[in-house]
Design brief:
The strands form five sheets. Strands 3, 5, 6, 17, 18, 19 and 20 form a seven-stranded antiparallel sheet that branches. A hairpin with a 6-residue loop joins strand 1 and strand 2. This protein is globular. With 476 residues, it is of the alpha+beta class. The longest helix has 22 residues.
């Protein structure tokens, strides 16, 4: 099973059907769940979150490489968030053409002008990778992106190992079941929030999860909430509209929502343009940013996770700006970079356009958006670039080399979906947690991992987008 699921097991249809029923029950028993609402008028139901029947083989060397580099990515994101000149220069072209990024940047500038109310910084991020296979069969770890806001699935990923262990035991694969790694990102993420809450210094203050009205992924968040409740830390869940109506700042800039003092604002919402439905929504974001509450992320950390910043970091000499006396750290980070290219106006951007239109199958065109399902592939790249190549609109995108992972056969289990063997591609993520108070880094850890797998017929999309499913790495 080191290089894939044995063919005889995959093709044993009768046994696979039995195993699928065992797997679904195991997911329910172990809490790998999500809420589903079939239509606006139907009642909600709870079912298993989509997942793979078998864990996916992952080379131990690249797994450990990604795990080791995560603390450096934590440090890098924090250093970027504290460098307003870099953020201004990196995003100058983007904010000229992308209204959403420009609006976020306006909030960032206002906070800089007024001065930050809080010196405690909490970062919960996830760096995502794929394994790029070269023509000679060698594989290397390449970063897709780093998520600095609402890095999800830490809760559900904490429970999928038990599901796959059980499936493998029932399938008679005892040795492999013992190689499924323990994984507790929910505990680690909650530990970071708890540390920020503790440093805030008020036992009466609460942790506020900022959420959207309809949450398919609410149970993923509940696992983190429950870890906080175990520590006797009160959590509340509020929407932008509720913060706008009942939120206020006192004379010390302490944030109160419904009369409760907020120590930590944990954004699980607010990363897409459609999340900001009115001027009142933007005013609520600004009020939270102005407040004494610890923000996860604060506005500058949010901006540090943009695609444009990712592209600028790949330029020669940029990493050295943040790690001037640490060549080994620079080498570790740069080793994970895929090819990234500017589409700014000028000769460099013109070359990128020509290169992408000549061989679009080699690239991914990325807008400044989060949440999955936004990237552009293949001939559609040519269509988009043909429309914007002579316009400043092209600066709203970056171009990235398309990573070419090796497909692995597996079954993807989704409610109401037919059971079939799929050629699958996987994406490996690592959760980073850091807490800084003033100039002192109080915590900087890698707290767990996430493997998501999708059919190779889909170019883009995550679990919430209905394309990828939850998975576990089986190291070899």
């Amino acid at each position: 099973m080191a290089q894939g699921i044995p063919k005889d097991l995959l093709m044993n249809t009768a046994f696979i059907n039995e195993l699928v029923e065992v797997a679904k029950d195991a997911a329910l028993v172990h809490g790998v769940l999500m809420r589903v609402k079939e239509s606006p008028n139907s009642s909600e139901l709870v079912t298993y979150a989509p997942f793979t029947l078998f864990p996916t083989p992952v080379p131990k060397a690249v797994f450990l490489q990604a795990k080791a580099v995560q603390i450096h990515y934590n440090t890098l994101v924090d250093k970027i968030s504290r460098d307003p000149d870099f953020l201004h220069d990196a995003l100058a072209c983007t904010i000229a053409v992308d209204d959403f990024t420009a609006r976020l940047f306006k909030v960032h500038q206002q906070i800089l002008q007024e001065g930050r109310s809080q010196s405690i910084v909490l970062g919960l991020n996830r760096s995502d990778y794929m394994l790029d296979e070269k023509e000679d069969g060698s594989m290397s770890l390449k970063q897709i992106e780093i998520n600095t806001i609402s890095a999800s699935f830490g809760g559900l990923a904490s429970h999928t190992p038990d599901v796959h262990r059980h499936i493998l035991k029932v399938a008679g694969r005892l040795e492999e079941s013992q190689r499924v790694l323990d994984n507790k990102p929910a505990v680690g993420l909650a530990h970071g929030i708890a540390k920020a809450w503790e440093l805030y210094g008020s036992d009466r203050a609460v942790v506020m999860f900022l959420v959207e009205a309809m949450q398919r992924n609410i149970l993923d968040q509940r696992f983190i909430e429950n870890e906080l409740w175990k520590r006797n830390i009160t959590t509340i869940r509020k929407r932008f509209e509720e913060v706008s109506k009942s939120g206020k700042l006192d004379e010390k800039n302490r944030l109160f929502v419904d009369g409760q003092e907020v120590a930590v604002v944990y954004f699980r919402h607010g990363y897409m343009p459609q999340n900001y439905t009115s001027e009142q929504t933007w005013e609520a974001r600004l009020m939270m940013e102005r407040s004494l509450a610890v923000k996860c992320p604060d506005i500058s950390t949010h901006l540090a996770g943009t695609k444009k910043v990712q592209q600028v970091l790949a330029k020669p000499g940029i990493l050295e700006r943040f790690f001037p006396d640490q060549p080994q750290v620079v080498e570790q980070l740069r080793a994970t970079f895929a090819g990234l290219y500017t589409l700014d106006m000028g000769s460099d951007g013109d070359k990128t356009v020509e290169m992408a239109m000549a061989t679009p199958e080699r690239f991914v065109l990325k807008p400044q958006r989060e949440g999955g399902g936004n990237n552009i592939y293949g001939e559609e790249i040519c269509e988009v670039l043909a429309r914007v190549k002579d316009s400043s609109e092209r600066m709203a995108y970056i171009l990235m080399d398309k990573i070419q992972p090796r497909p692995i056969q597996n079954y993807l289990l989704r409610r109401n979906a037919p059971l079939k063997i799929s050629n699958c591609l996987s994406e490996l993520g690592f959760y980073g947690v850091y807490v800084r108070k003033g100039q002192d880094m109080v915590m900087n850890d890698c707290v767990g991992h996430l493997l998501r797998t999708k059919s190779s017929e889909h170019s883009d999309g995550g679990v919430n987008a209905g394309v990828a499913v939850l998975d576990n790495p089986l190291l070899f």
